[in-house]
Structures are given as structure tokens and as C-alpha cells.
Design brief:
Distance between the termini: 67 Å
Number of strands: 7
Largest sheet: 5 strands, mixed
Number of helices: 24
Number of domains: 2
Radius of gyration: 26 Å
Helix content: 55-70%
Length: about 575
């Protein structure tokens, strides 16, 4: 191991982490636009495009914080609307994530710092959600930077890290509502580390109050010395929050841009961005009905996600907790445990992306554990073929194979397997790319309506879907509205066969149960059926005496290829 540390790329964490970032960027951008949009990407992407077209935007808690919405809209304005461009901002953030390891250099060895960057770059769960237009990965990045900046501020007494922590946490608050759970977890972890220190002191015959008393004294000393800087933190956070949460409007007397031109409007805009947004958040996410579900199945699902996409991270974190139970490791262990216990309770659906917030808590212990395993290999007799040597080597090899294999199966297999719990049920399991190409052709060549939704996915007034919340059955169309909006296709509906126009649009979409009904009315149309959920139909699986219902859905697509070939 010492020979490895003597190599320049391990002796300089900055150089090594730069290489890690290049690798992270490569694995995130490779085939970034291949996967068809998830339902969640489709609905948010659709409203991003509608905001760009109308100029109207206001905070809607059901689609989470504004950071991803605004940044993605700006990128689309420059590079155009596509799956690749839609996911690009999150992919770049995920690629830069390993650089946050440098904030922990006061607590980590150089090799541990590099290992932390590797974990943040290559953990399969972080990789998957770095390639997904959703707010959990940005939240994890900004919250982790906040934590790292606070650690660096405490260890170096440099106030610039407090300013970094303030801006990073303000950005975290603009990503997703569960940002408020991070400081709650951190406070709980501090308490448990203090309890652990008191128990250890008592075990060694010392006064158990001493470590608690000394910790509180040190904390109060920092607060007094940082007094002026701490007072500035809310003033630094406020502009970030107002900028992202303030409503936008093309009207001359409403919205952020109007307030910048007319300062008399500013108090109302600031109020809407802060107090108004907080109230909207509380009205939706803090009501009991949002969490009224049985706890055990959600916990089991959470555990399955961690086992499938983060097992190596968990194993090395456990190694660190067992071999190197230093305060930072203990803190992260309690932080991770609070997330494992808490998220299945606060979740409104079985959401695999929430496991991202466990992985970032385990990243530091996992990095320490990874280096510890490497360090122990020579000491147990690398050439002696001892049981310990074989075991440690097997752990390293199997963990590496797990990371590569898990990433390949979870992230790059397209279409995804029907049991891919990380992909989540809202990920279409069919090949919708040919349909998307037909939508593009229809929008470019057809006159009049381009796409017709039939039956249960028909909407009486299509303009009702321009701003959230949309009509309830509109959501069953996802992710197709993202593609129709991105291509500029004109959309209409028919609730039943009598409402079907005499000359239907070149693309007609319906639930697969309507295939026979439509087939007689659409002669000459080619027909294609594809899964718009992860599975083509509902599936029941049994495990440990329990039965689990897995949803599925298939749609039928009628395409008049002759019309698309001749129009225009």
C-alpha cells in the first residue's frame, strides 16, 4: 500500500480527483439520451417547456423545488429540447460531485480523500440518478458540500467555508423539500456521537459528562468567534432563495423581473418566494395523508434498492465502523441510520431515488473502509495465501465486480428489466423511440392535429394541461407529453368512438385494450404496442410468504405512415 501512496496520482488528491471527475463525466454522458424519459422526467420536462413558452412559473410543491426546473430551462433554451439536454445539468453536477471530497482533507488521509471521490463517482445509485432529470442528486450534492464546508470551517477556523456552507445549503433548499431533513439528521447524529463519547468515558472510569461538557464549550466558543459571520448567513441565503422561488410572469406588474424593474413590487415577490413557498410546502407535504401507508413494505423496498445498487458502499462503510470508529465515521453512521429509518416513513410512494440520501451519508465511511481493506492486505501476508488475505482480496474483487455489474444492469441495459427496482415503475419498459420519431415526423410534415389520445387518456380541454395541476387522466399519458411538446406536435382527444374525427390525425394513442375498437376505424394505420410502464402488465410475485403487486401498462400506437410520407 505504501508503494501505491508514493505514486504521484495518489500523492496529490487534486490531480487524482481531476482524473476521477473525467471518469465520472464519461460514464454519465455515455448514452445519456438513450433511455426513454421516465414519467417523472416527462411531467417536469413538459412543464419546463410550457414555462419557456408562456413565461409563467410559480412554485408547485408536487413537482419539487425550482432549481432543476429553472436550470434545465436555461440549458434547453441554448441547446434545444432532447432527453440528453434535459438530463445534462444533473449529469454535470454528478460528475463534479467527487471534488467535494477535498472539503474533508482535515479529517481524511490523502488516499481516503481520493477513495471518497471514487465512491461518489462510481456508486451505482449515484450514477443512475446522475443520469436522471430529478432533484434528489442535486440535493445530495449541495447538502454534502454544506456538510463538508462546515467540517472544514470547524477544523481550519476559516470563515470562507461558512459562506460556502450558506450558499450550498440555500441551493439545497431550492432543489427539494426534504432538504430540511438533512440538518435534522445531523443534529441527531451529533447527539448520538455525544452519547457514545459519554458511554466510552464511563466505560474507562471517567466522568461521562466531561466529553459532553467539553464539546458544548468548544461549540459555544466557535459561535462566539464566528458571531458576525453567522449573522450574515441568512442575508447570503435570502437572495438565492428569492431568485429561485420567486414567481415568473410576462405581465408587467407581477413576478421577479417586474419587481427588479419596479422595486415597489419587491416586498410581495419576496413574501411569495419565502413565506408563500413555505406555506405551500407545509400544506402539501406536512399533512398526514401524504404518509398514510404501511411502513414495513416501504422499508423492505428501501432495503432492496440499497442491496441492488449500494451493497458495496454499505459493506465498506460497515468495515470502517468496525475497524475505524472515529467520530466522523460514527457521525455518518448515525446520519445514514436516520435516513434508512426515516425515509420509508416520510415517502409518499416507493421511491428508489430517496436511497441516494443514504448513500451520501455512507460515502465517507465507505471510503475509509475501502482504504482500510487495502491497508490490511500486506499486514496479513500478501504472499502467504492466508484466509484473511484471501477474504480481503475477495471482498475487493467482488465489490468491484458488483459496482461494474450493477451499473451495467441498472443503468445501461435498455429497455430496463421489469424487476429493476432502481428504474422504478414509472420508467417505460418498451421501446418508444420509433414512436417518438413518428411524433417528430408528424409535427414537421402534417397539417392540423398531429396526435390524438383516445379513451381513458382523452382530456376534454387540452389547454387545461398547460400549467400544473393537469387533468387527472393527463398523467396517464406520461412520458409522451414531453415528446409532443418538445417536437411541437398538436394534440387532441377523443373520449369514445363516436368522438373520433372522420379524418383522424396520423398518430392515435390509446390503452392496449382499445386496439380492436380502433382497428376497424383506422384502416391502413400500422399498429405497435409498447409498455409505457416498467412492465407491460400487472405482475404478482411471492416472497417469504408475502405477495407483491407490481403495476404495468401497455399502450397501442396507430400510425398512418402513408400520410406521414406524403404530407409536406
Amino acid at each position: 500500500m505504501q508503494r501505491l501512496r508514493d505514486r504521484p496520482w495518489l500523492g496529490d488528491p487534486h490531480r487524482a480527483l481531476a482524473l476521477v471527475v473525467v471518469v465520472a463525466l464519461t460514464v454519465r454522458l455515455a448514452g445519456l439520451g438513450v433511455r426513454v424519459a421516465h414519467w417523472d422526467e416527462g411531467r417536469v420536462g413538459y412543464w419546463i417547456l410550457r414555462t419557456a413558452a408562456s413565461g409563467h412559473w410559480e412554485y408547485r410543491p408536487i413537482i419539487h423545488g425550482p432549481f432543476v426546473q429553472h436550470v434545465t430551462r436555461w440549458v434547453i433554451a441554448v441547446a434545444g429540447a432532447s432527453d440528453f439536454v434535459m438530463r445534462l445539468p444533473v449529469a454535470i453536477l454528478g460528475s463534479l460531485f467527487p471534488l467535494s471530497a477535498l472539503l474533508f482533507r482535515t479529517r481524511l488521509q490523502d488516499t481516503e480523500t481520493i477513495a471518497l471521490g471514487v465512491v461518489l463517482a462510481l456508486n451505482p445509485l449515484l450514477l443512475y440518478y446522475s443520469r436522471f432529470m430529478r432533484s434528489d442528486l442535486p440535493l445530495a450534492v449541495f447538502a454534502f458540500v454544506t456538510f463538508g464546508a462546515l467540517v472544514a470551517a470547524i477544523d481550519t477556523d476559516r470563515r470562507r467555508y461558512l459562506h460556502l456552507a450558506a450558499i450550498a445549503f440555500a441551493l439545497a433548499l431550492t432543489t427539494k423539500e426534504n432538504a430540511i431533513l438533512y440538518p435534522v439528521s445531523w443534529l441527531g447524529a451529533i447527539v448520538m456521537v455525544g452519547v457514545g463519547a459519554a458511554v466510552a468515558a464511563r466505560r474507562h472510569g471517567r466522568d461521562p459528562i466531561d466529553p459532553v461538557r467539553s464539546g458544548l464549550a468548544a461549540a459555544m466558543g466557535r459561535v462566539r468567534s464566528w458571531g458576525r459571520t453567522l449573522l450574515l448567513i441568512p442575508l447570503e441565503m435570502l437572495p438565492v432563495l428569492v431568485f429561485f422561488y420567486a414567481p415568473r410572469s410576462p405581465d408587467p406588474d407581477a413576478g421577479l423581473w417586474s419587481a427588479l424593474a419596479d422595486p415597489s413590487l419587491l416586498p410581495r415577490v419576496v413574501w411569495d418566494a419565502t413565506v408563500g413557498s413555505a406555506g405551500a410546502f407545509a400544506d402539501l407535504w406536512l399533512v398526514p395523508d401524504m404518509h398514510a401507508h404501511p411502513y414495513a413494505p416501504y422499508l423492505a423496498h428501501f432495503g432492496a434498492v440499497l442491496a441492488l445498487a449500494a451493497a458495496a458502499t454499505v459493506v465498506f462503510a460497515v468495515v470502517a465502523i468496525r475497524w475505524h470508529p472515529r467520530p466522523l465515521v460514527a457521525f455518518c453512521g448515525w446520519w445514514a441510520l436516520s435516513a434508512v429509518v426515516g425515509y420509508p416513513y416520510v415517502a409518499d410512494i416507493k421511491a428508489p431515488w430517496l436511497a441516494v440520501h443514504v448513500v451520501v451519508a455512507l460515502a465517507i465511511p465507505a471510503a475509509i473502509g475501502l482504504v482500510a481493506v487495502f491497508d490490511r492486505l500486506p499486514t496479513v501476508g500478501l504472499d502467504g495465501h492466508t484466509v484473511a488475505t484471501v477474504g480481503l482480496a475477495a471482498l475487493l474483487v467482488s465489490s468491484g465486480a458488483f459496482v461494474v455489474g450493477s451499473s451495467a444492469l441498472i443503468t445501461y441495459q435498455q429497455p430496463p428489466h421489469g424487476l429493476n427496482v432502481v428504474a422504478q415503475g414509472g420508467q417505460p419498459g418498451g421501446d418508444l423511440r420509433p414512436i417518438v420519431e413518428d411524433l417528430q415526423t408528424a409535427a414537421a410534415t402534417n397539417e392540423g392535429a398531429d396526435v390524438l389520445y383516445y379513451g381513458d387518456i382523452a382530456v376534454a380541454n387540452e389547454s387545461h394541461n398547460d400549467q400544473p395541476p393537469a387533468a387527472s387522466n393527463w398523467y396517464d399519458r406520461l412520458p409522451l407529453p414531453w415528446y409532443t411538446e418538445a417536437t411541437g406536435a398538436t394534440v387532441t382527444s377523443a373520449a369514445d368512438i363516436d368522438s373520433l374525427p372522420a379524418d383522424p390525425p396520423p398518430v392515435v394513442i390509446a390503452d392496449s385494450t382499445q386496439r380492436d375498437v380502433l382497428h376497424a376505424r383506422l384502416p391502413g394505420y400500422s399498429v405497435r404496442e409498447e409498455a409505457v410502464l416498467l412492465r407491460p402488465g400487472p405482475v404478482t410475485i411471492g416472497a417469504f410468504g408475502f405477495e407483491y403487486e407490481l403495476g404495468g401498462q401497455t399502450y397501442v400506437f396507430f400510425v398512418d405512415r402513408a400520410a406521414l410520407a406524403t404530407d409536406g
